[in-house]
């Protein structure tokens, strides 16, 4: 219970610290020949701008988004209610970290998966907001996760789990790369990068978990797509939250799926 409580507190702090960075990203796309010439890049991408209130144009800082207080107060300047993504991040990350701490008893593993959840939460929020994932964020999560899991493998002499993690990352990346290649307008390459990170952390446990996580992500994607069309949003929706949700659900099912 002490470990779970510590994970909950860590989740509250991380959710607060990540709120402003997660809401700073905006979509960039070339609008004029001058933009194209200056950027030397024709691709659409997520770039950091400002976490700005749409009414009074206030640039939010960490003091503006204190958990619980900011949900009731809203923007300090104009009182506009904070976006739902703020509440979901500040509620969801502590809950996810607490449940994960209850599932994993090995401290090294727990630290790696808490890192995974923090990166995943930021990716899901950004993708849900602007339908784009910063290209470097999944790679950062994968590289740091590989270092953390590698340290655990060295400490307990478990090379098999590390090999399974690497193969899971490669397999998930390859599968999503094929899907992206066949339908590039339906799946962004950010999802391909995210799949590699998901495959790494799920593959550490078992190849079965990778399959289950991607299956659950597909189900969540179908549900999200149907919901988006029912609300008049069309067939374009963020797949990152679905992929992240499937991964987390599979992770929590480790005691059942991986005896």
Model description:
The structure is a single chain. The chain is mainly alpha-helical. The chain folds into two domains: 1-103, no CATH class; 107-125 and 133-259, no CATH class. The protein has eleven helices and two strands, in the order αβαβααααααααα. The protein has helices spanning 2-22, 33-39, 69-73, 84-103, 107-130, 136-156, 159-182, 189-205, 207-230, 240-252, 254-257; strands at residues 25-28, 45-48. A two-stranded antiparallel sheet has the order 1-2. Helix 5 (107-130) runs antiparallel to helix 10.
SSE topology:
Blueprint: H1 2-22, E1 25-28, H2 33-39, E2 45-48, H3 69-73, H4 84-103, H5 107-130, H6 136-156, H7 159-182, H8 189-205, H9 207-230, H10 240-252, H11 254-257
Antiparallel strand pairs: 1-2
Q: Which terms summarize this structure?
A:
2 strands, mainly alpha, 259 residues, single chain, 69% helix, two-stranded antiparallel ribbon
Largest beta-sheet characterization? 2 strands, antiparallel
Q: How large is the radius of gyration?
A: 19 Å
Q: Spans with pLDDT under 50 lasting ≥5 residues?
A: 34-41
Major β-sheet strand ordering? 1-2
- Basic shape: globular
Structural class estimated from helices and strands? mainly alpha
Order of helices and strands: HEHEHHHHHHHHH
Strand content is under 5%
Q: How many H/I helical runs? A: 11
Q: How many strand units?
A: 2
Give the rounded overall mean pLDDT.
91
Calculate the terminal CA-CA distance, rounded to whole Å: 23 Å
Helix residue percentage: 55-70%
Number of domains: 2
């Amino acid at each position: 219970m002490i470990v779970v409580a510590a994970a909950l507190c860590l989740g509250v702090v991380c959710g607060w610290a990540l709120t402003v960075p997660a809401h700073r990203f905006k979509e960039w796309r070339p609008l004029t020949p001058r933009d194209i010439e200056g950027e030397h890049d024709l691709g659409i991408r997520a770039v950091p701008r400002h976490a700005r209130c749409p009414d009074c144009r206030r640039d939010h800082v960490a003091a503006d988004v204190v958990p619980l207080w900011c949900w009731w107060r809203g923007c300090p300047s104009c009182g506009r209610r904070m976006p739902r993504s703020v509440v979901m991040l500040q509620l969801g990350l502590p809950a996810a970290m607490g449940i994960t701490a209850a599932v994993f008893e090995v401290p090294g593993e727990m630290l790696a998966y808490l890192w995974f959840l923090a990166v995943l939460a930021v990716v899901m929020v950004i993708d849900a907001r602007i339908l784009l994932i910063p290209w470097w964020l999944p790679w950062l999560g994968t590289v740091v996760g590989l270092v953390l899991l590698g340290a655990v493998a060295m400490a307990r002499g478990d090379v098999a789990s590390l090999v399974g993690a690497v193969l899971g990352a490669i397999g998930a990346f390859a599968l999503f790369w094929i899907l992206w290649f066949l339908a590039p307008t339906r799946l962004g390459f950010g999802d391909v990068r995210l799949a590699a990170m998901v495959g790494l952390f799920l593959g550490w446990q078992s190849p079965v978990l990778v399959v289950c996580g991607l299956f659950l992500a597909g189900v969540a994607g179908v549900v999200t797509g149907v919901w988006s069309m029912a609300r008049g949003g069309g067939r374009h929706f963020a797949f990152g939250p679905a992929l992240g949700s499937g991964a987390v659900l599979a992770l929590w099912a480790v005691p059942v799926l991986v005896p």
